[in-house]
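The authors assume throughout that readers already know how a fold can be written as discrete tokens. Each protein is reduced to its one-letter sequence and a matching series of backbone shape codes. I therefore recommend that a typical entry be quoted early in the introduction. For illustration, here is how one protein appears when written out as sequence plus structure tokens:
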Amino acid sequence: MKNAFIKNINHEEVISLASQVEVLPGQVVSKTLAQNKAVSITLFAFAKGEEISSHDSSGDAMVTVLEGTGKFKVNGVDYVLKANETLIMPARKPHAVYAEETFKMMLVVVFPQNEE
């Protein structure tokens, strides 16, 4: 796929996003689908007990759980999301992800554009 804006995934084919990343023991597996100054789209697969520690982002982050259940902490508040549920984690607010069980998610981050 020459000049594809969305990469690492088949175009013009119906797929399951969850099937595009594999849970591996003791790991957080990620697969970047798009990355530029405006947006980032990444699939993640978390093994049970794995986490991404607290951090923040300059953009709004939208997570959608694809399979299993994920625990998200945003600005000190815990949220538990099941498959097909979505949460927006606002820009510049600390957030973390924890896998109480294996789960998969899609992360879309929309970054601010220069507004001068």
